[in-house]
Specification:
heterodimer; A: about 425 residues; mainly alpha; 2 domains; globular; B: about 200 residues; two-stranded antiparallel sheet
């Protein structure tokens, strides 16, 4: 294997994980973690010029960006977890190793063309996600990590069976599988990888894993794990025998069921981290629904919502532990309002394609999106700081959040022509 | 599928049913190891008949890892005093048997109707064992059952791999090596190790 840029981008986090495993000091660990994640992002910025297909490049870029901005909060988040005795020195080292392993595995799964390597990457990512969650030294976190392994393990076994069936479809002469197979393969892959992204019916681990982990762990588990299954879903539908523009009923049903279920749970959930996760799950449901509709317009909408959701979710998680300054309160409010508006924005993006396919589907789609938006608006949290507790603004602390929010605003209201062209290329499966 | 491979595969399927109804966890472990060995023998017999060296290699790997190494590790874990010796049951005999029969019918019908032409027998066997292994997780409760159920499902993978001609070595290795069951076993081992060392809230 030649030392190409994608290989370096994938290998770097694993090398950093090995280095972090040998470093005892948690302070040095935070610095190395942030430096490695930043270097990975810088290299990932070059990927769009190196990779033929646009979609893996976008997802790798998104994964590396979220990991980089999350790692910059290491000083704040790890220190807070140490002070609260949720982490100790040893588990901080485990946490950093799992952080880099999760990043490397997510990049491996996204950048590989082979179904088998993608599955292997997803398996390592699930193991690392369990490691990030189990690093927290509480009984609940340990139980949650076990549940994560169990439900994602079920998903991974189904996905492995589907992956083997892909090779059956590729024929005896194919060295690597192709992303298009029998209906049974599609069912196994959608249900299996759906468990990793938190789709119904294997969804119940995700809110708990996000609630019990550290803030950094919650951001990674909530955001990075979602990219791999969504890429698999798009690759599967792009290779379907009856053409990539035909609707896929399974995607539509699973997406709609996830949206409705998450929207109802959201209306009854008081815990802020679980609410953020459920809001994300509802939006992932809309994304899968949009991919199922099949038209380039719906796929464009799904990709846009997926990108904005990853950035928005990362911003909100990073705001959770922010020092209560005036700027932090405004930033948090802006992020909350952005997430609240996302279901409506997504509805606007996919309504046309839905009406073209089956107009009656607009009813449950709109009901789910409005219920999710209404629940988010009603339960909008406050920073919990009184006027006296407000501290002087530290602009550097919030810079990564602003960067992500600025990207969301640009994508939503003023997408530059080349970026729009890039998204259109991806929506057309080229 | 050759007669020997079919016989060994059918034995693995029968052991899936036995797993659903045994009481003690050490018996479950023995049955699971035997099932993994039967599935590996089926794959080996099929590979021998087809002169497929890679399938024989995968069968050897599955025999060593799924049939010997992982069950031994799980046996050591089960020997710890903190774990109960019997697995709990979430449903009665009738419901368990009905669920297993439905899954078996779904597997066979699904394989026949939803896959392309080819060898459907080992594929149906593999899917049945996979789903019955996952059913075990839903019907029984014990800290070691996630690893056991996933190990049983892994035996289905190696049988499914027999049905796919020309499967490349990396995919065969993934079907033979119990990555996910090992992850579940490691999770329980860490959980058990951390149980007494947890910090006060």
């Amino acid at each position: 294997m030649s030392l190409t840029l994608p290989v370096i981008v994938v290998a770097l986090p694993f090398a950093a994980a090995v280095l972090l495993a040998c470093i005892g000091s948690w302070r040095a660990g935070i610095r190395i973690n942030a430096a490695a994640a930043t270097l990975v992002f810088i290299l990932a910025c070059l990927l769009p010029w190196q990779i033929r297909t646009a979609l893996p490049a976008l997802l790798a870029l998104l994964t590396a960006l979220v990991a980089m901005t999350t790692s910059w909060f290491g000083w704040r988040d790890v220190r807070a977890a140490l002070a609260a005795r949720r982490l100790d020195r040893r588990s901080t080292r485990h946490h950093h190793v799992a952080f880099q392993t999760l990043l490397g595995a997510a990049l491996l799964a996204v950048l590989s063309d082979s179904p088998a390597v993608t599955w292997l990457g997803a398996t390592i990512a699930v193991a690392a996600a369990a490691g990030v969650t189990a690093a927290v030294r509480t009984t609940e976190a340990q139980r949650t990590a076990s549940r994560l392994v169990l439900l994602c393990g079920v998903g991974l076994m189904l996905a492995l069976f589907g992956t083997l069936l892909l090779y059956q479809a590729a024929g005896p002469d194919a060295v690597s599988g192709q992303w298009g197979g029998s209906q049974l393969a599609v069912i196994c892959l959608v249900l299996g990888y759906g468990g990793i992204v938190g789709l119904v019916p294997l969804h119940s681990w995700l809110p708990d894993a996000v609630a019990e982990g550290t803030t950094q762990g919650a951001t990674l588990v909530g955001t990075l794990l979602a990219n791999v299954p969504l890429l698999v879903f798009l690759r599967l539908r792009s290779a379907m025998a009856d053409g990539p523009d035909r609707p896929v009923v399974l995607y539509v049903v699973v997406g709609l069921a996830t949206l409705m279920f998450a929207a109802f749970c959201l209306a009854m959930q008081p815990d802020i981290r679980r609410r953020l996760t459920l809001a994300g799950t509802a939006m992932i449901g809309v994304v899968v629904f949009a991919f199922g509709l099949g038209s380039p317009a719906a796929t464009f909408g799904g990709l846009l919502v997926m990108t904005m959701l990853a950035l928005m979710r990362a911003s909100l998680f990073q705001c959770l532990e922010a020092t209560p300054t005036r700027a932090a309160i405004w930033t948090r409010t802006a992020s909350d309002l952005g997430l609240t508006g996302l279901p409506i924005f997504a509805l606007f993006l996919v309504a046309g394609a839905t009406a073209d396919y089956q107009p009656w589907l607009l009813l449950p789609l709109a009901a789910g999106a409005l219920l999710a938006a209404g629940s988010l608006l009603r339960g909008r949290p406050t920073m919990g700081a009184t006027r006296d507790a407000i501290r002087p603004t530290n602009l550097l602390e919030l810079a990564p959040v602003w960067l992500q929010l600025a990207l969301v605003v640009v994508l939503a209201v003023a997408m530059p022509g080349p970026v729009a062209g890039w998204f259109r290329t991806m929506a057309a499966f080229r | 599928m050759t007669a020997a491979a079919g016989l060994a595969g059918a034995m693995a399927l029968a052991l899936s049913f036995v797993l659903l109804f045994t009481e003690r966890i050490d018996t479950d472990l023995r049955v699971c190891a035997l099932q993994a060995m039967a599935a590996a023998v089926a794959a080996g017999a099929q590979g021998w008949a087809e002169h497929a060296a890679t399938l024989c290699f995968a069968a050897l790997l599955a025999f060593a890892l799924n049939g010997l190494a992982l069950p031994l590790v799980l046996r050591r874990l089960a020997g710890r005093t903190t774990l109960p010796s019997a697995a709990g049951r979430r449903c009665g005999f009738a419901i368990s048997a009905l669920a297993a029969a439905v899954l078996l019918a779904v597997s066979v019908a699904g394989t026949l109707r939803l896959t392309q032409s080819g060898q459907s027998d080992p594929l149906a066997l593999g899917l049945s064992i996979l789903l019955l292994g996952l059913l075990l997780l839903a019907l029984r409760s014990h800290p070691l059952l996630p690893a056991l159920g996933l190990l049983s499902s892994q035996s289905g993978m190696i049988l499914a791999a027999c049905a796919i001609h020309g499967l490349p070595l990396p995919a065969l290795v993934l079907a033979a090596v119990p990555l996910v069951p090992t992850l579940a076993a490691a999770s329980e081992w860490l959980h058990d190790g951390n149980r007494l060392a947890l910090m006060p809230p």
